[in-house]
């Protein structure tokens, strides 16, 4: 429902007289009732009114139906009475809680929804039935009920707040729903992981509304309480459904509608109804399921429920879920004559169970078997719909629940209805309502001090303009503990109802902090623990609400806190306005690396601590003391607040104190900001505002100066160094770069003859972003022959606080090419964890980091691992069984090749034996030389998988199961110089008894020789000239390498950097870092550089060359000169003379004309300056004119290329 201010005023003007005609206050002494009327008022405070029932019904006749176009701008308004004495205007639509055919049979039963025209967050649901007029109104002050004063009449009514309702003889709140029942019911909604929930609830552009067919039966006991008539029972049904649909629609976008033949399920006589033990809720569960199926059939409804009178065992009970064969197993017991109260307190709870929602309370003595361990987010009894509010003795948070679902309940309900079993029945209708969007200002992982108040604040927007309400709820699960005595991650803070101002919540409530009166419902953490809170936003769309949420997670630090304000905590504190006073606080280790609060803000309240209009200092160092200027304002209710800058915690001094107005002329001076915690150099000049305030006519001149040393070359300048009190000026600091981090402390001094000199602190912390001296050291660019691993190093620079390193197989450092990366290195060296592959080209680079952010990665260095040629030999006698007792077993390999050993490795030794720590493993050559590989290590390990190599970087590590090369106990170099030919033996000696034997499963013998590959030879690397904005083909006249063993197509140029002011093309395809071209590409005239037309005179790229044998040329630079007198290659020149492009600039289309026939295959391409292909034409023998339409292209510069076997021509094309 939408309305305008004009419509609102019109309705109020036109309807107020009508409202006065059907509502009137009346004293109870003037209430005259029929003889059969019964008064059953349970409210302790209420307003008595008379109602012209016929006039009200007449006013409602024109109300449009919900979900219609007319409902979007309803022209019908009624006034509803409030307990305080006023009438409030509501725009109205008619709601439909019954199937249309059922509603047509009972036209005297009408239900409505209203939205206040005076207060946007106030809504109402009300009913006109044979039982009279009933209403429930949601207000910021709580739920309001309007209902008949007595039965058997429709004239007199009462209005009261739900909080004044007194229910006697409450039954046990137990509803028989526990974790075991939840598991039996396949409670799939509970505890989906956060990523799934995020995807599920942010995937649709609008929120759908799901409607379920409700089969609602009743016992004769219930019907007798409603007059014993079908109309009376259906009236009570509609009162209940109108209220739960208000909750369901706004909370979870779900609604219930009575089935077409629901009146067949109403039993009027307890003596003839089919139910036994109607006062025992658990006894009705199975009976109702059987009853519904027998009367209307299993497929005639989506969810079943039954109303009965008071129960002796429960308030309600559920053991079945929506859309399953047990969907009719739900009971609501009515222990109050007010069906609306029961609907809100019991029915909304029980039906949520039928959507697989568990209890939200965390401790309820006597019925802990009903604890839902995966939903217990509320301390004690809890206070939301799924709580046991009022039923948990000394663990009660409140005595009546609030009409909204806890965040854990929302998650489960919405998932079950939209994604779970609940999505398999009912009907889903699209809507135009969008979810609000949350703006969360926090990142997870920060710390706060213990026993210190804190505040959370976020915002949200809604494109539909709905009236948003907000709530912050704790989202932690822990052990069952009494309220106020948490352990582990048990919940600390109760939930409060959503409100328009709920986007900001103080923990504990601000009034408790101000009055120093704390209770067990909100407990600050007193030990190290996790803290998670959900920011929940509801748009309160009256037809179909959207609820969204986002978490923030942080921790409390037991080594920090409590953070406390120490100033003005004693009675009798008086400050004078305009004075310069000291504020003290206990830092309590909050500057430690975890909490890391280096600065605080100091604020002043003059209303007892509720608001803080005066910022005395912002961003002052968190050192426990600061001098502040006291505003010249008189108050008896001053409070000081010191809060963390960049964190969420704060404290307020304990009591109000006095500020008196200045008694004599004077001035106050402030510096803003007082601290600049991070100035990244080089920076623009810093501007500091110097403000003064004069008291009682003080008009002397202040002489300003800055005390403190500036870095060399830096300057400090006042816009005016003389200032009349009451005026302001600016101090400009131009600080020149220095090395590393520097803290500069200054005083701004003001001198007035005959008046005390004023000094105001100013702190500037600078950090240089100059990393120009950073350079890579080892392995140097072009290093070859590295085996397995090497250490990396670079020179440290003062401005870098940490370094990041990347090692990859491509200079692009694309994720799939990275071998290893490490961040936050405090030293300028690194030893990699991963081993290098042989015969492989690697690249490494480093970038510096500090609090100003990361610098650029340095250009990479390239290195290559050794090129080796290996021969592998394997045994034929495996497996070899190993005895449990001391013994020796052997496996042999006969090597037929002859040669002199230069490198030998033992590969893939796999032994299973428990434990391997009783084994010795050695290798014996044909000449009898024995080398010990493994010697009785790795206790309690039953498996060895290892390879042995003298050049491996590490000895064996336990457990040895990854097959990586490790160094043997003795060096394999003992075999160098021996002949490979003959019988080699792997000997396994069981030194001590094991635990059951084992076996030698695998091993191998590898002889390797290092191969020195012949490097290619650089024949030509000459500067090429290119006209501005044009292109040129790079031919062998400018770039060529040769190799004795490799063909041109096997000589690869790998790009390490690309041109800065142009683009490199291979066969018309733009090349990037890590791409390659070959010598054959150059030989075939298929490598082209195109300049971007910028005002530059040089360009270039870097590359290295490798061949297929492992030979390579380290990083080289190819230089390009941008010269308007440069000539293109001979092949390109002949093409250049044949091609004309017009018009240029072009707007809609461009003509490309060829003055002669182009022989062979030709390609015409249009590309962006970044190389992206936009258009292409290919043909044999291009001639004449060809049209390219460019009207759809954005304005800008493009590259037009014509490629043939004879070369490539590139033209710049401007599109207007």
Kindly describe this structure.
The protein has nine domains: 5-164, no CATH class; 191-238 and 255-343 and 357-424, 3-Layer(aba) Sandwich (Collagenase (Catalytic Domain)); 433-557, Sandwich (Immunoglobulin-like); 564-663, Immunoglobulin-like (Sandwich); 668-768, Immunoglobulin-like (Sandwich); 784-865, Immunoglobulins (Immunoglobulin-like, Sandwich); 868-1010, Jelly Rolls (Sandwich); 1017-1122, Immunoglobulins (Immunoglobulin-like, Sandwich), CATH 2.60.40.10; and more. The chain is built from 13 helices and 78 strands. The strands form 18 sheets. A nine-stranded antiparallel sheet has the order 1-2-9-8-7-6-5-4-3, sandwiched between helices. Strands 10, 11, 12, 13, 14 and 15 form a six-stranded mixed sheet that branches. The longest helix has 23 residues, at 230-252. The protein is globular, with a radius of gyration of 42 Å. The two termini are 48 Å apart. The model is unreliable at 1-17 and 179-203 (pLDDT under 50). InterPro entries: CSPG_rpt, FRAS1_ECM, Galactose-bd-like_sf, Ig-like_fold, MetalloPept_cat_dom_sf, P_dom, Peptidase_M12B, Secre_tail. Residues 858-1015 form the P/Homo B domain.
